[in-house]
Amino acid sequence: xxDIQKLKFVKKIVIILACFLLFTTGFLLGSNIGKKEPKxxxxxxKKSVDKEIKKELTTKVVNDxxxxxxxxxxxxxxxxxxxxxxxxxMFNELKAQEEQPxxxxxxxxxxxxxxxxxxxxxxxxKSTAVCLVNYTYTHRSEKNTDRNALLNQNxxxxxxxxxxxxxxxxxxxxxxxxSLTEIDSGGYNNYKIELDETTQFSSSxxxxxxxxxxxxxxxxxxxxxxxxxEEN
Length: 232
Fold this sequence. Notes:
The protein is an alpha+beta fold. It contains 6 helices and 8 strands, in the order H-H-H-H-H-E-E-E-E-E-E-E-E-H. This is Parvulin-like peptidyl-prolyl isomerase.
């Protein structure tokens, strides 16, 4: 004969154990979810910051253009390399500049130009960059031969580049040759910029002929620093 009292007691024990297991399982699951949420929020915040950073003009974008534009075997030889990095209007301007008689006269004589390095001053707000560019070239006295040629001649020039956003990338829309004058004897990064109107060319009219650039509100770096960061 079944003992009813013992049966009821066993049922109570089973119910208590089941409730305890459910409570314990729920507590553990809640703790794990609570721990994962901050990590997920942190990851989402990081992705958001990364997206914002990618929207800004970077020194790498500027350096890629300088490399394509200043490295060439002869006048116009590098068009296919810099064309994807500039606007259509800017490409036409650069092409017209290269085809001017004064530049064609140097074709075959100023050759093997190679971009060396540049100090790049980026204004991420205006999407502009001021660059102190260093490059080398060979100056021939006769075409098709380096006999009596001046090899590895060093040249430095300053340019201001304006970029525009096209889709997901920045492209060059304006280039001005400028003169940089250091206005603070104690500060390497404080310069007065004056446009050299005799050598400027762009796809649009210049809006100003003078401005100031300082280290306080600009991203200032060199191509050497950029390369070191990328290698690390």
